[in-house]
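Predict structure. Chain length: 405.
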Amino acid sequence: MQCGGDRTAAEAEKWRIRLPDYSGSMPCEADRSSSYFCSTSSEWSLPDPVPVEWTVSGLLEATGRRISPFRPLMYGWSAVALFFVVSGFVIHLSFLNSKASTTAQFYWRRFWRIYPSYFFAMVVAAMGSGAIAGSADGRRELVTHALMVHNFFSDTFYGINPSFWSLGLEVQRYLLYPVLLAMRRRIGIERALGVTLILSLLSRIAVAPIQDWSRDPDPVLWALPTTLWFDWTLGAWLAERLHQQKEPLRMPRAAVWCLVLMWLISWHFKPTSILTFSITSGLSAIFVDRYLRVQHRPTRLESTFMAMGRSSYSFYLWHQPLIPLLLGGLTVPGLPDDPLARMTVGGLLVFLPILAWSALLHRSLEQGFMTIGQSLLERLSPPRSRERLPKTDRTAPGEPPDPVV
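Prediction complete.
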């Protein structure tokens, strides 16, 4: 039985995948208030129908609801919080390592690194989903996505490509970055982090009366730039500590486990779900700091991940529309009708083509646009300042920074 409020037929047609309740702490009731408190669901809007046997819900149903190797997939969205922390770390560390970089140069490099590849992926996804069919809704989708403000509206938040909401938020935090740098100069990065934390809490308090608490949290309300600015600043704070060669974060083991417990409670008790993302960011910051402080040669697995990370931006841009397309035509002769085999073999057969496509786009499209941006910057800059220009910024959101930015 599904919890979390009533669903209209129009909403059901959006192919929203809802995970069943696994908490076991409270039975689902028919009335709206109890369904709110027992709901532990999450949902994604997919651009095209995906066979139910390939969805998280279908895999969990096929293998048993309580004990399943696919149950960790319920928490896969936590990688977005890790991405925000890593993004703040990468951008700020690049700034700290750069010897000559103005605000205008920062935005110029960010534009050529991110926007052309995004615009191309957006147009292709829009053509595939029919968003540019000439309707008013289609034009609204295109304009809001082109301006990267689609995450401010409920009808465009997951439009065209559901993954794009986080990129819109990323760009808006780039606009806030000079404000963060100004606070850093005046009060220091630690107090600036505290300011963004207070702002995050105040933003949540401000939108709480607007939220319909009989339904799932509205992502537009709870993913505002001011709300999640703290999560990005966490990464910048870690970069500052590393750059200043400060000691690693030291937290008692009991405090870390307390955060883990808070994370689990926030996931399974809906009134606290509005804090889940930032709690996840806090745990991600602890993980990132401890990982970076360990001095060791990269293992083969780490080297493989670093190689794949070079094309991670294109992978991010293209995986959402390509997964349904590839799954729809996937047939594996002789594959047993077993969820684990289907997910392992089928998932690999889908992952590898997307990875290859992403690597191709990185080498051609991404690097090509970065070269164009750098060439234009050198031409437009005064002759005396050309020698001080930083090299091409090849760092996409979440990627490791180049040695010279």
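Summary: The chain has three domains: 9-75, 78-293, 300-386.
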